[in-house]
Write a structure and sequence with these properties.
By secondary structure, the protein is an alpha/beta fold. The chain contains 6 helices and 9 strands, in the order E-H-H-E-H-E-E-H-E-E-E-E-E-H-H.
């Protein structure tokens, strides 16, 4: 089971349809069985029962999840794949002490792969949909995988299957979500 974590300001908000619903549809399209929980309602049994997790994006000004860093501490001991998307990347980085820098990118941006990784195998670059005002500074223990001309676009933990994406793969790059699912199945 893949745990989808809704980072929007409240559960089932209007933003849910834009940022969570597409991820759930993509995962179901691969045959995965996701469950959705708002970040304030994730329980220990949810985490213990998950074979992987996706932390979804939010609207630009929706950053309330950052006021609750303790909620995400479980990420440092979670032994299964995690994909943090946009705001989810910020939550993932914050759980490991990473900060942010101003970097506004909205719309399609050309990005390039700078380190080999199965998630981006065979790719040297591609256009991606961006919707963020801040970029993540690479936390200790992570490496940059993909960059734009302005900021880091994807990171991976050096020893854990933890990924962060600044862009939104559910908009134009669903193949990334499709590649993430087998990673979850391998750790199951």
């Amino acid at each position: 089971m893949i745990l989808i974590i809704d980072l929007c300001y409240r559960g089932n908000s209007l933003s849910h349809a834009e940022f969570v619903g597409p991820i759930e549809r993509c995962l179901r399209g691969t045959g995965a069985e996701p469950i959705v929980r708002h970040y304030t309602a994730v329980s220990a049994p949810d985490i213990e029962g998950a074979d992987g997790a996706v932390l979804c994006g939010t609207a630009l000004k929706d950053t309330g999840f950052l006021d609750h860093p303790d909620i995400f501490r479980w990420l440092s001991t979670f032994a299964h794949p995690v994909l943090g998307i946009s705001s989810g990347m910020r939550a993932l980085a914050a759980a490991f002490g990473g900060g942010t820098v101003p970097c506004c990118e909205i719309g399609m941006v050309d990005i390039r792969v700078v380190a080999p990784d199965p998630l981006f195998a065979g790719m040297t670059g591609f256009p991606a949909y961006e919707l963020h005002e801040h970029a993540v500074e690479t936390p200790t223990g992570f490496i940059p995988l993909v960059v734009s001309d302005r900021c880091i676009q994807a990171i991976r933990h050096r020893s854990l299957p933890l990924y962060g994406l600044s862009f939104h793969p559910e908009v134009r790059n669903e193949w990334i979500i499709e590649r993430f699912v087998p990673m979850v199945k391998r750790t199951h």
